[in-house]
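Q: I have 81 residues here and want to know how they pack in 3D. Can you give me a structure?
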Amino acid sequence: MEPVSVVTGRACPIDANDVDTDQIIPKQYLKRVERTGFGPFAFAEWRYLDDGSPNPDFAMNQPEHAGAPIMVAGRNFGCGS
């Protein structure tokens, strides 16, 4: 495997500190057998409103961040839950 030396593209900011793994992929989506296809569930509780529609205030739902291959997060991102 080749090491990654340069990554280019737009970045999507996740303006929060201490984001734990339950916020990244909520537990109700971890019952899948497959190890792929989790993208639509990422940040589901922040990303979608109660009616299931996209939350327009969440960065991943804003047009300028659509398809961004890079995420910029606050400190302690991915901490244990």
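Q: Anything worth noting?
A: The longest helix spans residues 21-24. The radius of gyration is 14 Å.
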